[in-house]
Amino acid sequence: MKKILSILSSTFILSLFMLSSVNAQVEDVHLQEAIRQTEAVVLAVDVKTMTQLAQEAERYAVEVKSTHPEDKHLQEEGLKHLNDVIKESRAGEAAAARKAAIVALSKFNQIESK
Questions:
Q1: Which residues of 51-85 are buried (b: 16+ CB within 10 A; e: fewer)?
Q2: Scanning 16, 68, 103, 109, which has the fewest C-beta atoms within 10 Å of its C-beta?
Q3: How many Å apart are CA 46 and CA 20, to the nearest integer?
Q4: Which pLDDT band, with edges at 50, 70 and 90, does 20 fall under?
Q5: What predicted TM-score, i.e. pTM, was given to this entire model?
Q6: How far apart are CA 67 and CA 48, in angstroms?
Q7: Greater confidence, 21 or 29?
C-alpha cells in the first residue's frame, strides 16, 4: 500500500511539473505570435493588411498580458501602441501605423528578452 501511495505521489508531482512546463510554453507561444504578427504589420504594404495583422497581434498580446503579470507595464504599452496601429491604419496613415507597430514590437521584444 505504501509503495502504491509513493508511486501515485511521485506521479502527481511529476504531472504538476509537466503542467507548469506546458503552461510556460503556451505563454511563450502567445508572446512569439504577438511578435510575429507585429513584425508582419511593420512589413505590410497596405493599411487594410496592417489593420488585420494588428488586430491579430492584439489578440495574442492580450493573452501575454494575462500570463506575464510581472511585465504588465511593457504589455500595456505594447497594447496601447497596437491600438494606435489600428487607429492610424484605419485612418489611412500607413507611416504613423508602422511607427506605432515598431514601438509595440520593441515592447514585446523587451518582454521576450527577460
A1: bbbbbbbbebbebbbebbeebeebbebbbebbebb
A2: 16
A3: 41
A4: very low
A5: 0.76
A6: 29
A7: 29
Mean pLDDT, rounded, for 82-108:
97
- Total residues found in the chain within this entry: 114
Contact of 98 with 47, CB cutoff 8 Å: no
Cell numbers that stand for 14 in this block: 511529476
Question: What residue type is 9 in one-letter code?
Answer: S
Given a contact cutoff of 8 angstroms between Cβ atoms, the answer to whether 37 and 60 are in contact is yes
Q: Which phi and psi angles does 46 have, rounded to 5°?
A: -130, 155
What is the C-alpha to C-alpha distance for residues 35 and 15, in angstroms, rounded to an integer? 30
* Cell numbers found for residue 101: 507597430
**Residue whose C-alpha cell reads 496601447 in the numeric block:** 80
Runs of H (alpha helix) within the chain:
2-43, 47-67, 72-90, 94-113
Give CA–CA dist 38/98, Å, rounded: 10
Rounded Cα–Cα distance for residues 100 and 19 (Å)? 36
